[in-house]
UniProtKB/TrEMBL annotation, chains A, E:
Identification of the protein by name: Molybdenum transport system permease
UniProt domain ABC transmembrane type-1: residue ranges: 10-218
Pfam families: BPD_transp_1
Keyword flag Transmembrane helix: yes
InterPro entries, A to Z: MetI-like, MetI-like_sf, ModB_ABC
Bilayer-crossing regions: 12-36, 48-69, 89-114, 135-157, 196-219
Keyword terms: Cell inner membrane, Cell membrane, Membrane, Molybdenum, Transmembrane, Transmembrane helix, Transport
Membrane topology, as annotated: Multi-pass membrane protein
Function: Part of the binding-protein-dependent transport system for molybdenum; probably responsible for the translocation of the substrate across the membrane.
UniProtKB/TrEMBL annotation, chains C, D:
Protein name: Molybdenum ABC transporter ATP-binding protein
Keyword vocabulary terms for this entry: ATP-binding, Cell inner membrane, Cell membrane, Membrane, Molybdenum, Nucleotide-binding, Translocase, Transport
Stretches assigned to the Mop domain: 290-356
Native source organism of the sequence: Kushneria aurantia
A single GO molecular function term of this UniProt record: ATP binding
Oxidoreductase found in the keyword field: no
NCBIfam families with a match to the protein in the record: modC_ABC (TIGR02142)
InterPro entries xrefs: AAA+_ATPase, ABC_transporter-like_ATP-bd, ABC_transporter-like_CS, Mo/tungstate-bd_C_term_dom, ModC_ABC_ATP-bd, Molybdenum_import_ModC, Mop_domain, P-loop_NTPase
Domain annotation ABC transporter: ranges: 1-229
Superkingdom of origin organism: Bacteria
Length: 233, 235, 357, 357, 233
């Protein structure tokens, strides 16, 4: 049904978006927690940095990534020297680009949900001997789960559709970094390839819908578990 | 004053900005340059974008536009030529050479290093690069070692940043960038001629648009084009 | 010793207290709505920081603003039952009960669960509980944390009478058997009479009175706050014998006079304390014959005080202890009572149900 | 007429009731925690749909599952006070009170606000209220909606005694003056005694008994549920005179016997109804001399029933009415009571404070 | 301080992002409400359509917009014939593109917050005689305000940084549709213009930060208004 190229792009896309989500989920939750429940110097700065990838055109983010994480970049050169790791032109690099672009969406959604958790319950947990950390893990985070799920979907979808930063930082290498959006872009730029473009478009949409359905199902389960009275009104 | 919408390929951005300024000094006309990739511009014009003049970075998209019903393309002619250049970061150790069949590029690549090009699937500069590699018999070896950018500029950036030791861009790009060194020009016969066609768009193109298009072939314009590294096509 | 010295403002409200209570038994916090009871409890639990002051429980200092000392709530080992249930909505009842992870199963767990009657609810989510069920789970959660002190903010509201009595008994036993000190907030005077030994009376953030409940109930100037209590006097006696046939227990006072009350669960020889409501003590000049009064005790009038309009509060001396009786002014004049008179105190045995503790 | 026929399942719980109550006065819903009181109230309020059944109030049908009729909650005009306060956290107290937009100012508003003692709180946000304060605002919010019926789910928990009595009085006046029917859920037997005329007794989702409160309290088989009530009997009498010196009121029974109780506010000639607690009625064979008993009433023993272990419930006929007395088995045997005997019922006047209504 | 071109791009960006936010805020809240509190046939489909712009590469979305809203498009041709309105290549078109791209972010955040509103309070409001609509406007929406604000910031930031869909659908017309990201693109296309690019980059970041600060302040105000006990724990 799918051509080999399509399969390849699909597979890379899933791998890249999945990895992107995996690498940002813990830091994302952590940063969201910091922003939601703590006051510290530099908070506004952190908040700003988190939002950067959202407000800059993706190509610019990709370029900045190249500046920082490229082989001559501050972090990139260190990575290369210390571990022999070079991220540009690799699918890991594409995942990084996707993760960076998706990060603010994840943080925002999680933060929103964390802020909505009733501090009364956290207080009750404290009196039961739970440390701040245990309260966070056992009370705050589970109650914010809908936000984590929403944030996760947004992030996954964003990483899945990421184009500008990816192509700039990780290039468009077939079999390595050519994700669905990159493949789609190539076809759309070629006269007469509208059919192939439509197919790729359909595949992207299908993947996104699937992830959506899964997330809805997860979210519904969480909610149903807690649902009591007054939910059907 | 009349206003003329000039849709120009993104690779013409800097030279066109200079030309617009130059032209507006002596003419009572309001030039509006619109930059995007040739393909985007072609599709937009196809959808009725208010273009008066279209400058494409390759022949293909001008052809495509002419094939579309509903858009009238007139006074089409080849305006400019460009050359394909091999570049390296400006601190490179590689001496200048001509990238022909005698000098396969793999010889200059370490393990894992790549050559950055525009995506040969659709970026015009990439397509020319592919042709050049094919005609010099190194496409098979180089294909898996390409770093494909979304446009020429991306390919250039990768070299500027030292991500790749080599890159293939237009000679004009190589000239404009401070961060790269031009190692050599691909032989002109190793790929299709790099031609920038220009044309008037619309059923009733205004006089001002026609005048501007004519002026682009004038000596005054030629000087500026050449200053930016272009050659006039003159046909 | 529990020591609370707090000076704290929240909005217009100013909490300014200095309380010292023994580190045992039940201390009740009583006062009008908005008098600062919950605020005080929150400081003790570590949920608010006083602007100024210190809080100590036994050896441990929880808060000392001068020394910038503040022990966070999770290290205070206090079991708190909040005014609202505050169950964790994402854990089942069992998960809520075992959240503190101290008692998660075994006999003690089963005992608390069965006492609270929540076995059938263990697998439920909290949002599917009734009001009283949620409250019981909240109490269980605090008890199972095995705290060093219990802080209960109107814990028994929404519970039915039978369950309430059971829980009160259980709480009483906790304070005695494992010597768990308890701070108990309630507006229910009967509840407090049954459980509290000491009472801290708050008004607008200030301590109006602080002492033995029985002593405070005897103080006329506190009537505006404590008027709702069914005033009573404690009488101490020894269990003489049980009468199984009549389901009764006989007590001996120190002067040998006997009293009868409905069967209680104390062994013969044990000393018990009865609370005798003033309005249940009638007076007679002569020993009545042929009446339903099982308790006809010889006593001496010590003092007569005016009570509410038309009422007289009579202090009696009974077997070396003080017993208070509330009679009408009319009756007092008809009996022509005056200090030093010998009288018979008539107390219905039926009225003494549940008065021993 | 309020008609509730409901057959509904939620989880393991099965609510299956068929209740008909007059559309006036206070009907109490009573039953153990988890017996279905709140569930019933929610159906009436329109917050849940019964699986099957119908609900009618007067002319209006709110629910009829057979006809697929369901009037949404906002068109039922019922004032609901929930078991939790449920204040809107983003409106100030004033905004909460006026949310229903019926009474937003003026005299009626001021009256409710001052009755509830919440004037100083009007500009506060709900999260800065104490538990009792929040509850009072919730009551005010329901009252100010000018409902056609009030549904109160344990509305007075967390309020202090004085405030509770004031509110009870006010609610009573509402039912009388503007004939507002009220459904009242409470575990507090004293509260119910003071306010409820009818009682619906629920157990595990079923109606165990449904009728006049006084009548139900007289039914021995209901003791397992109603045992917590301080069982009492209503006695009707006429105000004879007031005795200002003794701050007392004399009542005449139909047979001419007189009773004395603390001053009440009824005019001479008016009929009043007293509630006399069983445990306050002592019995004697002979008229005692020289005792503090103001009320010594000749009565006839009608019947003797076993009560709790060691107790006997004695039904007396007094001036054509029934009076119940609870005495110990021991006293009953000592007095050798049997039906038909003439006895003296001794009732302390001091114990009758607040018993007339 | 700013060059004329920069000022122009800044102004267009603000106008475009502001308009984008304005046109989607009401439909966004409505759709979020539908998705959060209602069950209806086609709900999954609506959910999917809402997310489309998130999962497709922006250029593709721009192209689809061109196909649908262009003068030959289904809606575009109708608009042109009926009202004489043509959206492509106008700043209104850029606002449309920005709005479409930002829509899923707005809906997701609002929905998350709506779902977190305690249905107990809604039930209480119903018993006080409030219709569903009044309950939504007076109870649900105000309580979900943090989500609306968060959604608004995300949407505004997304519209502000929108590039691919805009350049494809609205083109890169100076003084009309050349927003900051498009201006940035034009400079970046030109080797040696890094200085100008950096300036534009800085302007974008500054605008984004400013909108962030405003939103934080708004959110904080909302939260502080309701804050009672247990918030400082
Ligand atoms: N969503 C639900 N799912 C399953 N069972 C429920 C649900 N809601 C309530 N119940 C059960 O229904 C029964 C009746 O609950 P209800 O709230 O009516 O009790 P109640 O009489 O008001 O009790 P209380 O005095 O404790 O408030 C309880 O046993 C409760 O556990
Ligand atoms: N965050 C706050 N800001 C301002 N005032 C507050 C705040 N929290 C509580 N108060 C006020 O402090 C006073 C004491 O409240 P507290 O909760 O301690 O009362 P309480 O004695 O527990 O009353 P209740 O019996 O009604 O629960 C009340 O008048 C209350 O309105
Ligand atoms: O922007 Mo072009 O069409 O790659 O010269
Ligand atoms: Mg309180
Ligand atoms: Mg209930």
């Amino acid at each position: 049904m799918l051509t080999e190229l399509e399969q390849q792009a699909l597979w890379i896309s899933l791998q890249v978006a999945g990895s992107a989500l995996a690498i940002i989920v813990v830091p994302g939750i952590l940063v969201a927690w910091l922003l939601a429940r703590h006051e510290f110097p530099g908070k506004a700065l952190l908040d700003g940095i988190v939002h950067l990838p959202l407000v800059l055109p993706p190509v610019v983010v990709g370029y900045l990534l190249l500046v920082v994480m490229g082989r001559r970049g501050v972090i990139g050169s260190w990575l290369l020297e210390t571990f022999g790791i070079s991220l540009p032109f690799t699918w890991q690099g594409a995942a990084l680009a996707g993760g960076v672009m998706a990060f603010p969406l994840l943080v925002r959604a999680v933060r929103l949900s964390l802020e909505a958790v009733d501090p009364k319950l956290e207080a009750a947990a404290r009196t039961l001997g739970a440390t701040r950390l245990r309260v966070f893990i056992t009370i705050t985070l589970p109650l914010a789960l809908p936000g984590v799920i929403t944030g996760g979907v947004l992030a996954f979808a964003r990483a899945l559709s990421e184009f500008g930063a990816t192509i700039t930082f990780a290039s468009n290498i077939p079999g390595e970094t050519r994700t669905l959006p990159l493949a789609l872009y190539s076809t759309i730029q070629t006269p007469g390839m509208e059919g192939a473009a439509a197919r790729l478009c359909a595949i992207s949409v299908a993947v996104a819908m699937a992830s959506l359905v899964v997330s809805e199902w997860l979210a519904r389960r969480t909610r149903r578990r807690m649902a009591g009275r007054d939910t059907g009104l | 004053a009349d206003s003329v919408d000039v849709y120009a390929a993104a690779s013409l951005t800097d030279v066109m900005n200079a030309l617009v300024e130059q032209y507006e000094e002596n003419h009572d006309v309001d030039l509006v340059p619109v930059y995007a990739s040739s393909s985007t511009l072609a599709r937009q014009i196809g959808e009725g974008a208010p273009a008066d003049v279209y400058l494409s970075a390759n022949v293909k998209w001008m052809d495509w536009l002419q094939d579309q019903g509903g858009v009238v393309v007139s006074q089409r002619h080849n305006l400019l030529r460009n050359r394909l250049a091999l570049i390296a970061p400006d601190d490179t150790d590689i001496p200048s050479f001509t990238p022909d069949a005698e000098h396969p590029l793999v010889d200059y690549l370490e393990d894992g290093e790549r050559v950055s090009v525009g995506d040969p699937a659709h970026v015009p500069a990439g397509i020319y690069a592919k042709q050049a590699f094919e005609s010099t018999g190194q496409w098979q070896t180089l294909e898996p070692r390409l770093a494909r950018g979304s446009d020429v500029r991306a390919a250039l950036a990768l070299v500027e940043r030292g991500e790749t030791p080599l890159g293939v861009v237009y000679a004009t790009d190589a000239q404009a960038s401070d961060g790269v060194k031009q190692l050599g020009l691909f032989p002109a016969d190793s790929h299709d001629p790099i031609i920038y066609p220009a044309a008037l768009i619309g059923e009733h193109p205004g006089d001002a648009a026609g005048a501007f298009l004519d002026w682009l072939s004038s000596d005054a314009a030629r000087e500026t084009f050449e200053q930016y590294g272009f050659e006039m096509a003159n046909d | 010793m529990l020591e609370l010295r707090i000076d704290h403002r929240q909005g217009d409200f100013h909490l300014d207290v200095d309380i010292r209570a023994p580190e045992q038994g039940v201390t009740a916090l009583f006062g009008h709505s908005g008098s600062g009871k919950t605020s005080l409890l929150r400081m003790l639990a570590g949920l608010d920081r006083p602007d100024d002051g210190h809080i100590r429980l036994g050896e441990r200092t929880y808060v000392d603003t001068r020394q910038r000392l503040f022990v966070p709530p999770h290290r205070r080992r206090l079991g708190v039952v909040f005014q609202e249930a505050r169950l964790f909505p994402h854990y089942r009842v069992r998960g809520n009960l075992t959240y503190a992870r101290r008692l998660t199963g075994g006999e003690a767990f089963d005992r608390v669960v069965s006492l609270l009657g929540i076995e059938p609810l263990l697998a439920r989510m909290p949002d599917a509980l009734s009001g009283g069920e949620a409250r019981r789970v909240a109490i269980g959660r605090a008890l199972l944390a095995e705290p060093d002190m219990l802080l209960l903010d109107e814990p028994l509201t929404g519970l039915d009478g039978a369950r309430k009595r059971e829980l009160l008994d259980y709480i009483l036993r906790l304070t005695r058997e494992i010597e768990l000190p308890i701070l108990f907030i309630s507006h229910d005077t009967q509840e407090l009479m049954a459980i509290a030994e000491r009472l801290v009376l708050l008004d607008s953030g200030r301590v109006v009175a602080d002492g033995e409940l029985d002593e405070l109930l005897g103080r006329a100037e506190l009537a505006p706050w404590l008027g709702g209590f069914e005033a009573s006097t404690p009488i101490s006696a020894r269990v003489e014998a049980h009468d199984e046939r009549y389901h009764a227990t006989r007590l001996a006072l120190d002067d040998g006079q006997l009293m009868t009350l409905p069967r209680i669960d104390h062994a013969p020889g044990e000393r018990v304390r009865l609370r005798i409501r003033r309005r249940d003590v009638a007076l007679a000049r002569e020993m009545p014959s042929q009446s339903s009064f099982r308790n006809r005790l010889r006593a001496t009038v010590e003092q007569l005080d005016d009570g509410e309009p038309g009422m007289v509060e009579v202090s009696l001396r009974l077997a070396g202890q003080r017993l208070l009786s509330r009679i009408t002014l009319e009756a007092s004049e008809a009996l022509a009572l005056s200090p030093g008179d010998d009288v018979i105190a008539l107390i219905r045995s039926a009225s003494l149900a549940g008065s021993a503790g």
